[in-house]
Amino acid sequence: MGFIFSKSVNDSLKAQQEFMLMNSRLQLERQLLMQNQMRERQTAMQIAWTREFLKYFGTFFGLAAVGLTAGAIKKKNPGVLLPIVPLSFIFAYQYDMGYGTLLQRIKGEAENILDTQSTLLEFPKGPLTYEDLEKLRRSQSKFFIEK
């Protein structure tokens, strides 16, 4: 009698463990999907912001170029055109970020760093541990009472 009862408890326990494993796997999969969706949305917002900024900066750059060119012709001094050089670098960077391949190049470089230079990604003094955090919390806590 005890053996039959024990067997049904073991079967029930095994089924519950399988359910918990499947449930935790499903939860992890959902978390990964959510994190990826958030990353994609943040990247889309960054690209959209860059494109919007480019419209305003492009207008400013165009007006500045026309104004500086007119000033250089009027004063017969080509040095007046000098501010166009740094402005053109900023404009080219923003254009490349919004419509060019800058993000693909950044992604490629990040993958290269992950593959070949992973030591650059390590935290100083190694990864954080629970013990390190608990020691820090105890040293800063005003309510902790040591037994």
Protein model, in words:
- With 147 residues, the chain is mainly α.
- The mean pLDDT is 90.
- The protein is elongated.
- 79% of the residues lie in helices and 0% in strands.
- The longest helix is centred in the N-terminal third of the chain and has 74 residues, at 2-75.
- The protein has helices at residues 2-75, 84-99, 102-116, 130-140.
In short:
By secondary structure, the chain is mostly helical. It is 79% helix and 0% strand.
- Portion of residues in beta strands equals under 5%
Estimated helix fraction:
over 70%
Largest beta sheet, briefly?
A: none
Shape: elongated
Number of strands: 0
Mean pLDDT: 90
User: Which structural class do the helices and strands define?
Assistant: mainly alpha
Return residue spans where pLDDT drops below 50 for at least 5 consecutive residues.
Answer: none
**Element-by-element helix/strand order:** HHHH
- Span between N and C termini? 49 Å
User: What radius of gyration results from the CA coordinates?
Assistant: 30 Å
Number of helices: 4
